[in-house]
Structures are given as C-alpha cells and as structure tokens.
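User: Design a sequence. Structure:
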C-alpha cells in the first residue's frame, strides 16, 4: 500500500526540466513503466502520483503509465523505486535491433538454398552430423523481433501463432510498413530481420516451432514495454527458448524481472551482444540469466563490429550469414543478430534431445563444449566468453 500523501509528492515531482541530456533520446517521453507488488490497487497508486494508466499487462501486475507534462522523469522514478509497493520502475526505453548501422543485407540471386545449406558457419560451429541426433522437434522457440514472414516456403511450416505487440494484433508478418522511426531518411531498414533470425535458427534446428513475437518495427526500433510484454507472452504460451536480437545501452529492472521469471520457468534466453565494438554494457545481453553471443569472422577473429567483454558467454560466426529474406528470396546479412540464433538453435537441440534437463544444465553444456578463440584474438583474450560453440560436441559429449 502506498504510504505517502499526494501534496508532498506533487511538490517534489512538478519540476520544470531544464534538459534531460542523453537519456532524453533513449526513452519515450511522458511514460514510465511500473511493476507493482501483487495486491496493490493500481488505480489508487496511479492517482497518488498523478499518473494515468495507459496499458496493463495481462500476465503480471505491470503497467505503462502516463506522466503529466513538466514532471521530471528522473525524480519521479527515484520516488517510485523507494515505494514498498513497487517491484520495479523504469523509463520506457527505446530499443534497437542490433542491425542498426552495421548489418547491411544484400540479395543472393542464384543458388540461395545451396548457399544457405552449405555456408561456412555450418562447419565452423561443428554442426556436422547433428541433424541425425536432434532436430529440435517438440521445442518452441520465440523470436522477439520484427516478425516472421511465411513467404519462404521451407520456413512457413515451422511458424506458429504469436502476437504483434507493435500494432497490438495477431498479424506477425515481417514486411515493409513504410516506417522511418530512426529518422535516417530510409524506411524499413530492418525489414526481414526477424525472418533472417528465424531462418538461421531453422538451419540448425529444422523441426522447432518458431513463435513470432513482434516487438520491433520494420525500421528496427522498439520500446521496452513491448519487449517486456513479449517475454512474458512467450513464456506464458509455451516457449522454452527465446532469441532477443535487439538492445539498449540502458539497464532496466523490469526487463531483468521479466527475464528472471522466464528463467525460473525453464526458458533459455539468448541475446545478441551488440554491434558497437565495445565492452560497454548492452542489454538484454548483459542481463543475468542471458547467454550473450558475440560475432566472429570466418577465421575465428572477432568481427570488427562485435561487442566483447565479461558479459559474453559464447561466440558464433556473424559475417555474411545466408538466410531467407522477408519476400521469399535469399539474402546475406552480418551482425551479432545472426550470431545469436545459432546458439538459440543449439539450446533447442539440447532441449529436444534431453527434455529433462534444467536451464542451467543446458547453458552449462553450451559453455563447456565451446572452444576457446583466445589464440585467434590476442587483443581480446578472455573477453569472448567460452569461445565458439560446438553443436555436435554439445549433443554427443
């Protein structure tokens, strides 16, 4: 129960903002996200802080709340986090798919299927005879991204129903929307991103169920609220592996809370490390219980763009990955976005082969069978996690 009166709060909250600095560019103005303790009266809570409820999660007592004009968001969040009825409170961060500024797709005009099947990444992660051991059958993998197109005929049978949190409907198609949400003058920069991620998962786990959870628009931009809702949704609807190829340099207690819930319910969560060529924090890759994946070149040196550091769990190739494009053609794309789904597929293969294994056991098998790339990366020794994954080794050791 809220133990404050309205007047002292108003005196503290209604402060004119001289400038909010860098944070102003990284969150949705006029909104905060709040997760309340079970049993808290949300309407009363909101009224005491002068807030309005804009949206409510059907899965947890979490709310997207509108903030009155001229309220200092930082001051408000500081007060909310002190309230014993609050589990977590955050700004509604703006997220970007890891493709921004790095992953540029190109069409594959001829022999796309052959290139997809035989691309160098397949041998580098020692996929080998893994298809004879496990195909991922029976495992549901949630792809939190721009959606999944069913135009690639081979991919369509794996795609199950999901949800579009960007448009709040059941249309999870990955297609152009004519959106330039990042303001770079080009619309739909990330169209096909989710389909390529899903196609990469399918290459290594060809019988998993792929659940499209659309949390990013076709330009590669999303908001924290949709990502959090997407995690809870996928968890509630049977996904046991999640791929998160997006991120922010801002941490979020509510994002971590959603990940904690999924982890406690037996979900393996994999995220792209980010494409900033930095060891600075990148979320959700840096969140607890997440397998953060860095990208390598085909010679096992770190990809020039890939993040690195203590948060990295493992690595996979991330240069010129071949996969299905949204329109049914084939394309190549580079970035940690397409390194992560190889680990996602590995987790699904292990879950299918060993359905009784816990999340920690699956994670540990992925880590323990990876091969160090320190020798190929003298400038990044012990900053690329356990090394490049070994899918066949994980399934047979």
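Assistant: Done.
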């Amino acid at each position: 129960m809220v133990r404050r009166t309205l007047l002292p709060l108003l005196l503290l909250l209604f402060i004119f903002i001289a400038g909010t600095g860098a944070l102003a560019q990284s969150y949705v103005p006029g909104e905060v996200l709040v997760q309340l303790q079970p049993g808290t009266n949300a309407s009363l809570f909101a009224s005491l802080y002068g807030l309005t409820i804009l949206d409510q999660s059907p899965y947890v007592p979490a709310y997207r709340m509108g903030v009155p004009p001229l309220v200092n968001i930082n001051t408000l969040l500081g007060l909310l986090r002190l309230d014993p009825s609050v589990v977590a409170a955050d700004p509604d961060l703006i997220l970007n798919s890891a493709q921004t500024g790095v992953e540029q797709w190109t069409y594959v005009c001829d022999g796309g299927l052959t290139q997809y099947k035989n691309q160098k990444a397949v041998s580098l992660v020692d996929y080998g005879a893994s298809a004879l051991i496990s195909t991922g059958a029976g495992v549901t993998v949630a792809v939190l991204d721009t959606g999944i197109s069913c135009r690639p005929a081979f991919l369509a049978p794996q795609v199950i129903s999901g949800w579009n949190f960007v448009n709040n409907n059941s249309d999870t198609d990955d297609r152009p929307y004519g959106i330039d949400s990042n303001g770079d003058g080009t619309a739909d920069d990330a169209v096909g991103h989710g389909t390529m991620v899903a196609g990469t998962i399918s290459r290594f786990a060809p019988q998993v169920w792929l659940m499209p959870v659309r949390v990013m628009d076709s330009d590669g931009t999303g908001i924290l609220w949709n990502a959090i809702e997407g995690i809870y949704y996928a968890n509630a609807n049977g996904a046991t592996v999640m791929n998160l190829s997006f991120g922010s340099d801002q941490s979020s207690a509510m994002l971590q809370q959603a990940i904690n819930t999924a982890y406690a319910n037996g979900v393996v969560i994999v995220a792209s490390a980010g494409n900033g060529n930095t060891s600075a924090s990148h979320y959700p890759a840096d969140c607890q219980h997440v397998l953060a994946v860095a990208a390598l070149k085909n010679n096992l040196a770190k990809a020039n763009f890939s993040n690195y550091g203590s948060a990295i769990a493992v690595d996979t190739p991330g240069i010129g990955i071949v996969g299905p494009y949204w329109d049914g053609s084939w394309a190549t794309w580079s970035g940690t976005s397409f390194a992560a789904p190889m680990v996602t597929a590995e987790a699904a293969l292990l879950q299918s082969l060993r359905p009784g294994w816990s999340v920690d056991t699956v994670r540990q098998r992925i880590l323990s069978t990876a091969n160090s790339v320190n020798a190929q990366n003298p400038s990044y020794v012990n900053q690329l996690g356990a090394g490049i994954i070994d899918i066949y080794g994980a399934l047979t050791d």
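The domain at 106-396 is CATH 3.40.50.200 (Rossmann fold). The longest helix spans residues 340-353.
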